[in-house]
């Protein structure tokens, strides 16, 4: 069987693209390719990663312009066909702007750019992105953002909760979801959400920066390994490749 | 015809505007305590070619819906610039 191939989209202003590439290629040992924002093919990838950064300078709103890149048409089509898509930080903002995930990311309640390690609690194990995690398992990884304050209207929020689409919440190290553990003011400490179909996931923390002990945490690798396993266990024809 | 249109985009009133709050606080620190409900938004000015003002507004409305505003969190108002 061919190795699982990850595609990392590079927008003008992406700055976590190489971290994501390193994470999947050199830590996971999977195949990885960069996809330029003007490309019109996903080159047969199994998973698309929208990395962190400041695509298009964050002009207008974070992710608002990246959404109209030629590559995003393909990413939307891939996602609608059931392909795995993961958005990290700015990538999460782009997924919200493009309508692949509900809600939006507002300015941090503190008005400050927050760059530090946080703890996130696994709210739902067993999904494509959390299949190697246990329910309630706490992961440690960094956040680095100015607009990570997850917001959606009350009825959408109720739907997300009812359908188990909240995969991670900011918590203390021992798994308490408290206001003090919330770095940005997100509704209900939400750190990451998945679409209803279970193939598109976005989060503000940076799992690709938590892949090796030497940089402080290996917890992010659990998320990447989960999706890698999800691809290998899925029927080969589940997603049509170009 | 060319119409100069102005758009003001603000966070919906139900959404906390931390930037507005911070500025309000600073205004109060300056002794301007009679100022309240500060909200900060974006101002977009553009020229649109259309047959009449109604069509110009419809075009700008579409621009707001598709790009300039995010319906999850933003409200917007469209006006024709005076003298245009």
Describe the structure in brief:
Chain A is an alpha/beta fold and 242 residues long.
Give a verbal description of the structure.
The complex is a heterodimer of chains A (242) and B (84). Chain A has a 9-stranded mixed beta sheet with strand order 2-1-3-4-11-10-9-6-7, sandwiched between helices. Chain A has a two-stranded antiparallel sheet with strand order 5-8. The longest helix of chain A is centred in the last third of the chain and has 14 residues, at 220-233. Chain A has 242 residues and is an alpha/beta fold. In chain A, 22% of the residues lie in helices and 24% in strands. Chain A is globular and about 45 Å long. Chain A is built from 5 helices and 11 strands. The model of chain A has no long low-confidence stretch (mean pLDDT 95). Chain A has a single domain, classed as Class I glutamine amidotransferase (GATase) domain (Rossmann fold). Chain B has 84 residues and is an alpha+beta fold. Chain B has one domain: 2-Layer Sandwich (Mth169, Chain: A). Chain B contains 2 helices and 3 strands, in the order E-H-E-H-E. Chain B has helices at residues 18-29, 53-68, and strands at residues 2-11, 42-49, 74-80. In chain B, strands 2-1-3 form a 3-stranded antiparallel beta sheet, with helices on one face. The termini of chain B are close together. The chains are: A alpha/beta (242), B alpha+beta (84).
Mean pLDDT of chain A: 95
Computed over alpha carbons, the radius of gyration of chain B is 16 Å
> Helix amount of chain B, in percent?
25-40%
- The spatial strand order of the largest sheet of chain B comes to 2-1-3
**What's the CATH superfamily of chain B, by name?**
Phosphoribosylformylglycinamidine synthase subunit PurS
So what's the CATH class of chain B?
Alpha Beta
Gross morphology of chain A is globular
Helix/strand-derived category of chain B reads: alpha+beta
User: What is the total tally of β strands of chain A?
Assistant: 11
Query: How many domains would you count in the coordinates of chain B?
Result: 1
State the name of the first-level CATH class of chain A.
Alpha Beta
CATH architecture classification of chain A: 3-Layer(aba) Sandwich
> Which pair of protein chains has the largest interface, and what are the residue counts?
A-B, 18 and 12 residues
- Cross-sheet strand order for the largest sheet of chain A: 2-1-3-4-11-10-9-6-7
Query: Which runs of chain B of at least 5 residues are low in confidence (pLDDT < 50)?
Result: none
Q: Give the oligomeric state of the chains in this entry, treating copies of one chain as homo and distinct chains as hetero.
A: heterodimer
Rg over CA atoms of chain A: 16 Å
As for the number of domains of chain A, it is: 1
Number of helices of chain B: 2
Which stretches of chain A of 5+ consecutive residues score pLDDT under 50? none
Tell me the name of the CATH homologous superfamily of chain A. Answer: Class I glutamine amidotransferase (GATase) domain
């Amino acid at each position: 069987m061919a190795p699982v191939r990850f595609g990392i989209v590079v927008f003008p202003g992406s700055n976590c693209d190489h971290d994501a590439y390193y994470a999947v290629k050199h830590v996971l040992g999977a195949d990885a390719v960069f996809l330029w924002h003007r490309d019109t093919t996903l080159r047969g990838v199994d998973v698309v990663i929208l990395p962190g950064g400041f695509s298009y300078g964050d002009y207008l709103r974070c992710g608002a312009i990246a959404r109209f890149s030629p590559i995003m048409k393909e990413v939307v089509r891939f996602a609608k066909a059931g392909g795995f898509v993961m958005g990290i930080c700015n990538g999460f903002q782009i997924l919200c702007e493009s309508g692949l995930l509900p809600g939006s990311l507002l300015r941090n309640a503190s008005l400050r750019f927050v760059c530090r390690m946080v703890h996130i609690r696994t709210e739902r194990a067993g999904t494509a992105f959390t299949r190697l995690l246990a329910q309630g398992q706490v992961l440690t990884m960094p956040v680095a953002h100015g607009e990570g304050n997850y917001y959606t209207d009350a009825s959408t929020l109720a739907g997300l909760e009812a359908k188990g689409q909240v995969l991670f919440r900011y918590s203390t190290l021992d798994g308490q979801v408290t206001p003090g553990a919330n770095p940005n003011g997100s509704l209900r400490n939400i750190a990451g959400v998945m679409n209803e179909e279970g193939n598109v996931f976005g989060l503000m923390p940076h799992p690709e920066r938590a892949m090796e002990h030497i940089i402080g945490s290996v917890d992010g690798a659990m998320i990447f390994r989960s999706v890698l396993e999800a691809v290998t266990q899925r029927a080969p024809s589940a997603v049509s490749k170009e | 015809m060319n119409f100069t249109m102005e758009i003001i985009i603000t966070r919906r009133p139900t959404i906390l505007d931390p930037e507005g709050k911070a500025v309000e606080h600073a205004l109060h620190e300056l002794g301007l305590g009679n100022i309240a409900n500060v909200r900060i938004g974006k101002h977009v000015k553009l020229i649109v070619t259309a047959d009449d003002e109604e069509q110009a507004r419809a075009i700008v409305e579409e621009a707001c819906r598709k790009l300039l505003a995010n319906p999850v969190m933003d409200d917007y108002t469209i006006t024709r610039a005076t003298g245009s």
